Amino acid sequence: MTRVAFALLFGWVTVAIVQAQSPQEAAAQLAARISSQLPRHPTVSLELRNLSSMTPVDLSSFGRILEEDLRKSGLPMTAMQPETRVRVAVSETARGLLLVAEILGGENRTVIMQPWIAPPASETKPRIRILRTPIWSQPEPVLDLVLLDSDSELLVLSPAAVSSFRMAEGKWIPADVAAISLARPPARDPRGRIENVPGGFRVYVPGTTCSGSLHPALRLACAPGNEAWAVSPREANLVARWVTDRNVLESPSFQGAFYSGAIGWFSAVDRRISDRAGNSLATPEPWGSDFANIETSCAPDPILLASGPGDNPGGDQTQAFEIASARATPVSEPMTLGGPIVALWPAETAGQATLVIRNSQTGNYEASRLGLACAE
Fold it and tell me: Which range of residues forms the domain containing residue 303?
């Protein structure tokens, strides 16, 4: 049996007075109409097809928003043997976009058509510029770094050691090295954190936690185990610990393992950016697994510096986003980098973040400090 909901039959009559809809508004309306056709709330899969001029990035973003709205309406989403399949095609007419949702369940087939007048592209100039200051480069992996004593002393965390440097005549001069007594071998893609604490510093790597001192010499005392630490220094309630033998984190604030966390959002191992309740963050394009919050007087709302999707081995990018109503809005131009991002952490100094990339040409690990400035 086939049922066709010809909402379009009346929609075109009033299209002249229909206001433009954001992707969030169009997705919410379509999700509500789909849900109304499935009062039993079966398990549902979602497929998207692009027959319009919409870019793949915009289509992917719209798909994530629509899937989240279907979840909110009470439809359990699954890709494995769903009871109902929802296939949404985005087509285009002379009047704008047209969303065609085909609902397939058993012998039933329902078609919903919904016109979508997308808002015009914004010509607003970015409000924020990302500033980058190179700090250190070396052939060995750099997991994190910390600047001390008014930026005259540098501690660099590598997978098996902490190295200290002192600034002299504008250059970093090696001072000392302390080995990390690892309880477990490092993961294939090692990660770690170093933070300054009263009287010294702390090192956190998967399976091992160390306390360090700088005077009279660089010393490390390490023990097996994963102690909790503040993922974001300005969020005291967001603490996490490494998962032994892996490069992911776990926290009482989030169900499941994740790569990064800030201002209530987590980069989960399934590549979704979601909050504590499992709601997804709508992003204009896919993000990578690393992001960090950063303070600035240039915007009233929290800012996240996010990594790119990492699908380009020759380079990567980072961009600043404002987060409001479960939606990420870019507030800066993307900064192109010379290699993939391997670490992006909040810095010990407010308004800064630590970025580490692996230069695709030299193979060196390059650590920088990122900051934000108001665009002119």
Answer: 128-374
